[in-house]
């Protein structure tokens, strides 16, 4: 509104940042948290030729993203990402009818009402992971990545993953990383360059974008077409593509094929893995990466906190017994395992920041939030807010368990680590089920131990995380040692 124009912008360290035209920090969420102590919950910056805002507390985020959800239903756009074709991805698309249709489809397919469709695949694939870890208890990172990619590939297209495809996926991840590096492409700061022909000097970005776009297309189309054909020949596995296409062909579905294509494309592209993403002030929702960040963080924190691990195992032993794996049906009877899961999410949220862009000027706490600015919601700061989580740097699952000394348990961090409002993660039910399955089953079969050095001394890792919008543990060492007893043997034979 016009009156809003007279309001001041929120305070922030503007000039200093402008000098270099890059974001000069390692873990932006930590710095942003520091700034919030100085400037309050809203910090304003001007970088890469655009307005940027940092929001650090759940209350302000909820006011903006839930009470004014339509205003903040859009992601900031970056020209290079658009040229690369990422704007067809549900996570990047504008909040249009098409996006909403694809989102609704994802929410339906990944939601609790569809659990019967994904549950048996989840059980089968997780059993395979546990068996593979028993055979080769090293290189958990690779095995977890393989497991997640394989699951999502079979889930969407009914095809298993191959080494080559995983590799191409990784290359694409690197391309996403390059396309989304803020400040790297002049076209992001000067969008008018998009209109210049590709043959002009300095326009190499257009060629690169075209190549990346072609690769993305090919990567997503090949398995989609295979799944499509398998319907005609009545062969192949049942999967998301075949289920939805069959429903569409009855003429009674509320979804259509374009919605299906962008939905599958979005979650599948999302399986690519690249660990070293730099700060992306827009969102790369690399879905398997988020889940793998949580699972690796679980292994890291269990390696360090043996007491927590012992307590979680004792609960499984008592409630499930030593002879079978925990299933989704046991989840409600394992409060401590659930508390471990919450604390893993809180200790280092997989998505450190969520970004949105207001479609109109907004007023927050008496300050002006300019239309089209990139607003970054700092989930890490929310998870480490000392007013909400006492001793927020301590890993302590007990904080979620009510007891005489803890009559009001801490808030479940997953209320915000999956985002807010109109763009909240549509995969959260599946992700929660998957994370629970993997961690409870690993706990029941293995002891997660630190590695030992040549003199036999245990090397306890220190938690350290990559700096990206998806923050995952830096490589660390741990050992998975099969627990004594029949379960491991039984699984190996099964
Ligand atoms: C532990 C695992 C996961 C975490 C922590 C996570 C977290 C998030 C967050 C924070 C967002 C942004 C929400 C917002 O802007 O408010 C998001 C978006 C999204 N997530 Fe997840 N996610 C996870 C797993 C998954 C899985 C397994 C899938 C699908 C198979 C998925 C699909 C998506 C999609 C498609 C979006 C974009 C939604 C939109 O822009 O409308 N996520 N996720």
UniProtKB/TrEMBL annotation:
Pfam families: p450. It is found in: Membrane. One of its GO terms (cellular component) is membrane. This is Cytochrome P450. Belongs to the cytochrome P450 family. Keywords: Heme, Iron, Membrane, Metal-binding, Monooxygenase, Oxidoreductase, Signal, Transmembrane, Transmembrane helix. Its cofactor is heme. GO terms for molecular function: heme binding; iron ion binding; monooxygenase activity; oxidoreductase activity, acting on paired donors, with incorporation or reduction of molecular oxygen. The lineage of its organism: Eukaryota, Fungi, Dikarya, Basidiomycota, Agaricomycotina. It is a single-pass membrane protein. Its main location: membrane. Pathway: Secondary metabolite biosynthesis. It comes from the Eukaryota.
């Amino acid at each position: 509104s016009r009156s809003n124009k007279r309001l001041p912008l929120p305070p922030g360290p503007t000039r200093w940042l402008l000098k270099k035209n890059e974001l000069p920090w390692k873990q932006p969420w930590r710095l942003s948290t520091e700034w919030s102590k100085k400037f309050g919950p809203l910090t304003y910056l001007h970088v890469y030729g655009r307005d940027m805002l940092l929001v650090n507390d759940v209350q302000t985020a909820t006011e903006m993203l839930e009470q004014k959800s339509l205003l903040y239903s859009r992601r900031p756009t970056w020209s290079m990402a658009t040229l690369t074709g990422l704007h067809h991805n549900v996570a990047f698309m504008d909040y249009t009818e098409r996006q909403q249709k694809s989102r609704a489809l994802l929410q339906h397919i990944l939601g609790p009402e569809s659990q019967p469709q994904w549950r048996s695949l989840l059980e089968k694939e997780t059993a395979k992971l546990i068996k593979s870890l028993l055979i080769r208890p090293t290189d958990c990172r690779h095995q977890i990545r393989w497991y997640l990619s394989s699951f999502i590939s079979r889930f969407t297209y009914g095809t298993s993953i191959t080494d080559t495809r995983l590799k191409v996926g990784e290359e694409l991840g690197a391309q996403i990383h390059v396309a989304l590096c803020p400040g790297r492409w002049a076209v992001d700061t000067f969008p008018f360059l998009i209109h210049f022909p590709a043959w002009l000097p300095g326009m190499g970005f257009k060629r690169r974008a075209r190549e990346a776009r072609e690769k993305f297309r090919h990567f997503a189309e090949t398995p989609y077409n295979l799944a499509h054909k398998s319907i005609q020949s009545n062969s192949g596995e049942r999967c998301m593509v075949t289920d939805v296409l069959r429903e569409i062909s009855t003429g009674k579905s509320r979804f259509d094929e374009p919605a299906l294509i962008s939905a599958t494309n979005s979650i599948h592209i999302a399986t690519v893995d690249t660990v070293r993403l730099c700060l992306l002030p827009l969102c790369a929702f690399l879905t398997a990466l988020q889940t793998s960040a949580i699972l690796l963080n679980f292994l890291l924190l269990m390696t360090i906190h043996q007491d927590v691990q012992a307590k979680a195992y004792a609960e499984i032993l008592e409630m499930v017994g030593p002879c079978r794996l925990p299933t989704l049906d046991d989840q409600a009877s394992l409060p401590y395992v659930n508390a471990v899961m919450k604390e893993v999410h809180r200790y280092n949220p997989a998505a450190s920041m969520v970004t949105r862009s207001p479609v109109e000027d907004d007023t927050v706490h008496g300050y002006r939030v300019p239309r089209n600015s990139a607003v970054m919601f700092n989930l890490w700061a929310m998870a480490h807010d000392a007013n909400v989580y006492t001793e927020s740097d301590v890993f302590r699952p007990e904080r979620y368990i009510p007891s005489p000394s803890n009559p009001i348990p801490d808030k479940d961090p997953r209320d915000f680590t999956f985002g807010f409002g109109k763009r909240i993660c549509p995969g959260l039910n599946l992700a929660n089920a998957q994370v629970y399955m993997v961690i409870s089953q690993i706990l029941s079969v293995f002891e997660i131990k630190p590695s030992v050095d040549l003199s036999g001394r245990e090397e306890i890792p220190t938690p350290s995380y990559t700096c990206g919008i998806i923050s995952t543990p830096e490589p660390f060492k741990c050992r998975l040692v099969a627990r004594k007893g029949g379960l491991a043997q039984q699984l190996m034979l099964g």
